[in-house]
Write a structure and sequence with these properties.
Two copies of one chain form a homodimer.
Chain A (H helix, E strand, L loop, with lengths): L11 H9 L6 H10 L9 H13 L3 E8 L2 E8 L1 H13 L4 E5 H7 L6 H27 L7 H35 L18
Antiparallel strand pairs in A: 1-2
Helix pairs in contact in A: 1-3, 2-3, 6-7
The structure holds a DNA duplex (28 and 28 nucleotides).
DNA sequence: CTAAGCATGTAAGGTGTTACATGATTCT
DNA sequence: AGAATCATGTAACACCTTACATGCTTAG
């Protein structure tokens, strides 16, 4: 009786279940999957993947086939029928969220307290990151993703589209951001000026 | 000695510090701020805001002015010079991340295991959410945001731009996604049919 | 032979959420 | 009068990350 599985939220467990619906895989391969196609909207580390697989195994939602060739341990997981049922049930019941935690945008909000150099560096760094991810996405198109369901292609195209939009916006508007931030700099305390004295009590 | 404040990451504490750099506020107002301008890239709940303010207060980075008019407690916080220094230091040192956790996109990846109705509902729900946030953003333009720094306007415009791009993509491509998902539905096990045979070796 | 990649896992900890608990004031 | 909004806070817990720990294999 594989109990506890009425999760409304798509945690790492459910994600693993879902990825395994594309075909069997090891924990390591699952990680690569997260990094390749899913990285722009769902990250997961080994520290969450391996325990998830173990829990799923314990619940009978995945089956594990161990092979140890010459001391090299390898555990290939695949979805069980119970696992597919559970996955379908979760998908049918879920009310998925969509949240972004962008420290980058957060920092930008406080650009008026930053040096123009740092601000520039930040922006260029983010642009580079975006380019990197976009390039990686481009690679995926021909590669292994061919036999994945259309939905995954949809999600990837979505990522490409929105990241391109983000990139374009930043590129086109960074100029005025930087000059505006410079203009709005309040009288700089930490430069070598009459020091404002109060660092307060010890 | 206001110690422990070499955080490289922009946690809620630093965010509160940053928002207070726009002007004094209560915890409740801070929450509204998160909800209004920041919601699309940084969420924070009371359960993290209030403790953050207390910690900042203990470290001397913010000052608190309590007013209790007729049993109605109100704590107005404002940045201290030490707080501004700390904020500047954190901003100068940080390497901001940008991560998205979209259960929505995750679920879409497994569209082949969902009913077309659920899929449609999901997509329409997300579109409605986007419209809602976009409308809210539009309101902000004239309203209170006038005196906020240009950087905040940049971030808001960024949000508007990218969310619009997301919305457009979904609107334009949901058609083929839904039909493709329907086509790719594997023979449905949980209906009363002959079980799927090809589980391969077992 | 050394570095990178493949491969599995554990333990401690950080960070934030949910739910709870309370109460005044203003709008309908 | 009741609902919504203003207002503050706590405690338990979920969830994931980081760093650690280990060892084989392949490519340079």
């Amino acid at each position: 009786m594989p109990a506890r599985n009425q999760s409304k939220s798509l945690d790492v467990r459910t994600m693993c279940l879902g990825i395994l619906s594309f075909g069997e895989a090891t924990g390591y391969e699952l990680k690569r999957h997260f990094e390749n196609g899913f990285h722009h909207f769902y990250a997961a580390s080994f520290g969450s993947i391996y325990p998830a697989l173990e829990a799923l195994s314990a619940d009978g939602l995945v089956a594990c086939q161990e092979t140890a060739e010459g001391g090299k341990l390898r555990k290939v997981y695949r979805l069980t029928p119970a696992g597919e049922s559970a996955l379908r049930a979760t998908l049918a019941a879920c009310e998925p969220t969509h949240r972004m935690r962008s420290e980058f945008l957060a920092v930008l909000c406080f650009a008026h307290l930053m040096s123009p150099e740092k601000l520039s560096a930040l922006i260029d760094g983010r642009l580079a990151e975006l380019d990197d991810t976009l390039a990686r996405h481009h690679d995926l198109r021909d590669d292994a993703h061919a036999q994945l369901p259309a939905s995954v292609r949809f999600v990837n195209e979505f990522g490409r589209h929105t990241m391109q939009a983000a990139r374009d916006f930043i590129e086109q508007n960074k100029g005025w951001l930087i000059s505006a931030a410079e203009r709005e700099q309040p009288p700089d305390d930490n430069a070598s000026r009459a020091p404002r004295a109060r660092r307060g009590a010890a």
